[in-house]
Write a structure and sequence with these properties.
α2 crosses α12 and α5 packs across α12. The strands form two sheets. A five-stranded parallel sheet has the order 7-6-5-8-9. Helices cover about 45% and strands about 15% of the residues. The chain has helices at about 20-35, 55-70, 90-100, 110-120, 135-150, 165-175, 190-200, 215-220, 240-245, 250-255, 280, 290-305; strands at about 45-50, 70-75, 100-105, 125, 155-160, 180-185, 210, 225, 265. It is an alpha/beta fold. The model has no long low-confidence stretch (mean pLDDT about 95). Bound molecules: phosphoric acid mono(formamide)ester and norvaline (NVA). Norvaline (NVA) binds near residues 128, 165 and 228.
Length: about 300
């Protein structure tokens, strides 16, 4: 099937840098065709979900994607496997690699994903780590494309914490030739290596700006994006962060600075009244629920690309 980028077959997707800009475009194009129903590939394989953090969208969208492809899913909740009893990753990975065709993992350390990849011998997908959320970024760009068509040259502004979601969004935008501005409180900037990576992809084609000024960052932007101020694993910091992050809220005042056609995204789950207002998430410029739906299409595209269609 021509639309399926066969070069991803057998590979892992631990971060955006595991694919090229052309492969990213191919995935987005496949995701759009899957959403439109113009392609209906089948892939009778087995996906394991090993999630050490909570998840609604990622868990359900991967499960439904696999079912719609004619494949199957096994929920490997660490609490009901030997993972929570401390079985070494190297052992778990080698065993799972002999049963499963593909493994999606949600965890803390990016290095653990690398270990799973090395020892399992099957494609491993990052379903969120402390460093990156690359599957989210696929759906984010798909949503931007739906709103604007050609996305190269557009400007995306992220306000809030320089976290996993910000990292993957920033790198994905840079790979797609989209200008990206990340506005965070001082001390909460994105990881310097991720910024360097994004700048390298952007080259002369687009701009990567890291700033502490949310108002300047929002000027004429085509998309405003935010995420929670305290991620999973940072619950202890949530109260202390509230005052510090308040100027970085995605609200109607900020939206008024953006391009009139700007769209509002949030990866969800949201804390309304904290990082985003009810008005921004429920307003006419919000594409938050299209974005959530696109997780299904984008990850189905990813699964078919990594596994191949039947
Ligand atoms: N956006 C996202 O990854 O949502 P879940 O945590 O519900 O999977
Ligand atoms: N940054 C958030 C994203 C949740 C989808 C977290 O890691 O908790």
């Amino acid at each position: 099937m021509d639309a399926i980028p066969a070069q991803l077959k057998g590979r892992s997707f631990l971060s955006l840098s595991d694919i090229t800009p052309d492969e990213l475009q191919a995935l987005l194009s496949l995701a759009a065709q899957l959403k439109a129903g113009t392609l209906k590939p089948t892939c009778n394989k087995v996906l394991g979900l090993l999630f050490s953090k909570a998840s609604t969208r990622t868990r359900v969208s991967f499960t439904v994607a696999m079912y719609q492809l004619g494949g199957q899913v096994i929920d490997l909740n660490p609490m009901v496997t030997q993972v929570s009893r401390g079985e070494p990753i190297e052992d778990t990975a080698r065993v799972l690699g002999r049963y499963l065709d593909v493994l999606a993992i949600r965890t803390f350390e990016q290095a653990d994903l690398e270990t799973f990849k090395r020892y399992s011998g099957i494609p491993v997908i990052n379903a969120l780590s402390d460093l990156a959320h690359p599957c989210q970024a696929l759906a984010d760009l798909q949503t931007l494309q739906e709103a604007f068509g050609e996305i190269a040259g557009l400007t995306v502004t992220y306000v809030g914490d320089g976290n996993n979601v910000a990292h993957s969004l920033m790198v994905a935008c840079a790979m797609a030739g989209v200008n990206v501005r990340i506005a965070t409180p001082p001390g909460y900037e994105p990881n310097a290596q991720m910024v360097e990576q994004a700048k390298a992809w952007a080259g002369e084609r687009s701009e990567v700006v890291v700033t502490t000024d949310p108002i300047a960052a929002a000027q004429a932007a085509h998309m405003l994006y935010t995420d929670v101020w305290a991620s999973m694993g940072q619950e202890d910091e949530a109260e202390a962060r509230k005052a510090l992050f308040a100027p970085y809220q995605l609200n109607e005042t900020l939206l008024a600075k953006a391009d009139p056609a700007a769209i509002v995204l949030h990866c969800l789950p949201a804390h309304r009244g904290e990082e985003i207002t009810d008005g921004a998430i429920e307003g006419s410029q919000s594409r938050v629920f299209d974005q959530a739906e696109n997780r299904l299409h984008a990850q189905k595209a990813l699964l078919v690309s990594l596994l191949g269609a039947d």
